[in-house]
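hey so u asked for the seq, here:
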Amino acid sequence: MSKPIIGVMPLWDDEKNSLWMLPGYFEGLTQAGGIPIMLPLTNDETELDRLMEMCNGFLFTGGHDVSPDLYGEVPLKDMVSSCRKRDEMESYILKKAIEADKPVLGICRGIQFINAALGGTLYQDISTQYETDTEHHQKPPYDIPAHKVNIIKDSPLYKCISAEQIEVNSYHHQAVKDVAPELKVMAVSEDGLVEALYMPEQRFLWAVQWHPEFSYKTDVNSRKIFQVFIETANSIE
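ran it, structure tokens below
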């Protein structure tokens, strides 16, 4: 069976006016048996439809904050840095991927974006909106655990990992607040923040708040997440 092609959402650098990519996304997907390609940053629907046809699955990466406009809030002053074009592009791809039932994996911003795009809300800034002693914005190196998460026992993530609690890395300042109606929680952190979501009606739509792209080399659970994503994408014709 041929390797599945995974469309990876591009990262945007405001200062350099440039697209870029963390190698861990590509390396994690490649190790799991996929062929990752970085998508262009565009809201041209004709181009996005062609990319939708070409790709077997999609990875929604980290990066910019999700714009509060997406979930009907006013941005907190100096707390939110968003990329409107990326929000628009990813909204279209997510909608089309769900319609086509193509596998989707969200990481960090990915879980936040997917939740907001499907009708949920976010904490725009954890430090000012959520009282916690848990480390959610760790310093380098990013491949070591920062805190524990508790996994819901009847969730797909539990079936994948076979553990009720794992340690994860963490680097984010926004987080899921109200869960979108079509999504269900798969894991929560020690302080109660949502750490993983899925859509039961899709063959594979998972999203995690932590960073398997940093920890896949040393953490078997990170590799398992990439592997089950690629295995599902490999079943798409």
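The chain has eight helices and 13 strands. The chain has a mean pLDDT of 96.
lmk if thats what u needed
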